[in-house]
Amino acid sequence: MHPNSPPGSVFRTADDYERLLDGLDPAIVGFTPDVGHLAAGGMDPLAVIERHRNRVDHVHLKDIDGAGAWAPTGAGQIDFPSIVAHLRDTGYTGWVVFEDESPDAERDPDESVRRNGAYAREVLAPG
């Protein structure tokens, strides 16, 4: 289950997520948090992941700036190192995927992939 934050989405806020996650059997339905959408919905991505860690089965790393616009990975307000450290420290072995939807990534997707790879190697991997 991968909720998101656009105004037309059914599940956008902390209350929406709690209702959804508390109402679905974790043995059947996993949780794929998209940290950018969590932040856009007014939530602390790390706190949500910590609360529902037992059902996290895939993670999308997407950054957002203070105005609510998608930002290049590492240039916004998301604390990716803390999120990745928590996943590592709790034995997470699933996928973590960069999802850069910033204007820079739209203009030059190849450069975005290179930049995200460098961020993963230089910032996330050492931790």
List keywords for this structure.
4 strands; 43% helix; 127 residues; mainly alpha; 9% strand; TIM Barrel; two-stranded parallel sheet; 6 helices; two-stranded antiparallel ribbon
Return Rg in Å: 14 Å
Fill in the CATH topology.
Answer: TIM Barrel
Strand count, sense and barrel status of the largest sheet are:
2 strands, parallel
CATH class division:
Alpha Beta
Number of domains as seen in the coordinates = 1
Mean pLDDT: 91
CATH architecture classification:
Alpha-Beta Barrel
E-strand count? 4
Percent of sequence in beta strands: 5-15%
Give the CA-based shape: globular
Order of helices and strands: HHHEEEHEHH
**Fraction of residues in H or I helices:** 40-55%
H/I helix tally: 6
- Pick out the low-confidence regions: none
Sheet/helix structural class: mainly alpha
Distance between the termini: 28 Å
Neighbour order of strands in the largest sheet: 1-4
CATH superfamily: Divalent-metal-dependent TIM barrel enzymes
In terms of topology, how is this protein built?
Blueprint: H1 14-23, H2 35-40, H3 45-51, E1 58-61, E2 63-64, E3 70-71, H4 80-89, E4 95-98, H5 103-107, H6 109-124
What does this structure look like?
This protein is mainly alpha-helical and 127 residues long. It has a single domain (14-124), classed as Divalent-metal-dependent TIM barrel enzymes (TIM Barrel, Alpha-Beta Barrel). It has six helices and four strands, in the order H-H-H-E-E-E-H-E-H-H. The protein has helices at 14-23, 35-40, 45-51, 80-89, 103-107, 109-124, and strands at residues 58-61, 63-64, 70-71, 95-98. Strands 1-4 form a two-stranded parallel sheet. It is globular and about 40 Å long. The two termini are 28 Å apart.
